Amino acid sequence: MRLFRAVGRIVKGTWWLLVGIVTTTKHLLRHAITVQYPKERFEQWPRFRGRVAMVAGDDGGHKCVACAQCIPVCPAACITLERHREEGVKGFIVDAYVIDLGLCIYCGLCVEACKFDALAMIPEYEMSVYDKAELVYDIPKLLSRQLEPEFKR
Ligand code: SF4
Ligand code: SF4
């Protein structure tokens, strides 16, 4: 009786050992779903939304007209706009337009709200910095980019 029990345990143990080996081998031979970042990078989808950026106008400057429509829609309250009026000039003059990307939640609502297509979500997502003050993007930083979006609103 004891012998049967011992043989049964050996057979059962060997079976589960084989199941483990087969499972491990299957995973070893499977196509990897990760990439060796940062040496390799996934290709982004055309609608991928990285960070928010300002869109350059024909003159190379920004297209913002300081209407402030993007300010109240921002759930993170991370947009700062400074503007003034000048006599004889229609509309506002932009003094400063700043987005704190450290607070931004990348929702894209500001882009949706901007009737002047002055903002866009661009496919840049590598923005790690040691000093969070560097995440405060002013106009030149918001205009600069490495990647242009393939898909526009
Ligand atoms: S909604 Fe557009 S144009 Fe108006 S302040 Fe914001 S970025 Fe500028
Ligand atoms: S993407 Fe969202 S959180 Fe970021 S600045 Fe625009 S509205 Fe605010």
Write the layout of secondary structure elements.
Blueprint: H1 2-29, E1 51-54, H2 70-73, E2 79-85, E3 92-100, H3 109-113, E4 119-122, E5 136-137, H4 139-143
Antiparallel strand pairs: 1-4, 2-3, 3-5
Concise overview:
With 153 residues, this protein is of the alpha+beta class.
Structure description:
By secondary structure, this protein is α+β, with helices and mostly antiparallel strands. It has a domain at 51-143: Alpha-Beta Plaits. Helix content is 27%, strand content 17%. It has helices at 2-29, 70-73, 109-113, 139-143, and strands spanning 51-54, 79-85, 92-100, 119-122, 136-137. The N and C termini lie far apart (76 Å). Bound molecules: iron/sulfur cluster (SF4) (2 copies). One iron/sulfur cluster is lined by residues 64-70, 81, 113-114, 116, 118-119.
Summarize this structure as a short list of keywords or feature phrases.
alpha+beta; Alpha-Beta Plaits; binds iron/sulfur cluster; 153 residues; three-stranded antiparallel beta sheet; two-stranded antiparallel ribbon
Secondary structure: helix percent: 25-40%
- Averaged pLDDT: 92
| Name of the level-1 CATH class of the domain at 51-143 | Alpha Beta
Assembly category: single chain
Which ligands are bound?
iron/sulfur cluster
Shape: rod-shaped
> What share of the residues does DSSP label as strand, in percent?
15-25%
What is the distance, rounded to the nearest whole angstrom, between the alpha carbons of the first and last residues? 76 Å
Number of strands: 5
Number of helices: 4
CATH architecture of the domain at 51-143: 2-Layer Sandwich
Low-pLDDT windows of residues: none
CATH topology of the domain at 51-143: Alpha-Beta Plaits
Radius of gyration of CA atoms, rounded to a whole number: 27 Å
